[in-house]
């Protein structure tokens, strides 16, 4: 490069390493980016996710220790969907909603559909899944559901929504921290590149 790379440049390389599953280069990019932006929690989370996907639990633990030592905390993930002019907000594992029992029942049925779609077991009750279950429960005639998420959608949830979209006559749009994902007929507009 004709100039010295800054934090966003190293961060972009770190993101590319996640997409291409290059753990070794990710470690180099991570070390550089945290030198330049030591309090940017997103880079720590990204590196932790890279280690997690590679099955390197020691790497995940090292990143978490770094975060704890530096006093960094990840913002909790949440998703919301608008229904009758009101936003219904969900966090992972949330059971505070008045329709919680029905939402979890709908989510169980969606998980069974995802299994039929070849997605197998899905881990965690993430916020976007709860928002989708709520929307399907309450907006049965709707052909398009928009869910807003404050963080990036995880790979597991991305695969889950793709699988569900094969069986449900509805288009799912999830606006995460970086882009809009349009799920329809078992595929996503990002072509799994996000």
Automatic annotation (TrEMBL):
Supply the name of the protein: DYW domain-containing protein
Could you tell me one molecular function GO term of this UniProt entry? RNA binding
Question: Known Pfam families for this protein?
Answer: DYW_deaminase, E_motif, Eplus_motif
> Which family is it part of?
Belongs to the PPR family. PCMP-H subfamily.
Where in the numbering of this chain does the DYW domain appear?
125-194
Report the record's Gene Ontology biological process terms.
RNA modification
Stored InterPro entries: DYW_dom, E2_motif, E_motif, PPR_At4g14850-like_plant
């Amino acid at each position: 490069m004709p100039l010295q790379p800054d934090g966003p440049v190293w961060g972009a390389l770190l993101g590319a390493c996640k997409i291409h599953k290059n753990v070794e280069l990710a470690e180099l990019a991570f070390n550089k980016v945290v030198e330049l932006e030591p309090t940017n929690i997103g880079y720590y989370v990204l590196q932790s996710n890279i280690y997690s996907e590679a099955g390197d639990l020691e790497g995940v633990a090292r990143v978490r220790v770094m975060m704890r030592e530096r006093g960094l905390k990840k913002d909790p993930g949440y998703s919301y969907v608008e229904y009758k002019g009101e936003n219904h907000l969900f966090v992972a594992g949330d059971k505070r909603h008045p329709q919680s029992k029905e939402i979890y029942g709908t989510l169980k049925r969606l998980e069974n559909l995802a299994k039929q779609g070849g997605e197998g077991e899905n881990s965690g009750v993430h916020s976007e899944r709860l928002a989708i279950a709520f929307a399907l429960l309450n907006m049965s005639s709707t052909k398009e559901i928009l869910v807003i998420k404050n963080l990036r959608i995880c790979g597991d949830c991305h695969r889950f929504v793709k699988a569900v979209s094969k069986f449900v006559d509805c288009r799912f749009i999830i606006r995460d921290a970086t882009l809009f994902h349009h799920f329809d007929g078992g595929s996503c507009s990002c072509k799994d590149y996000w």
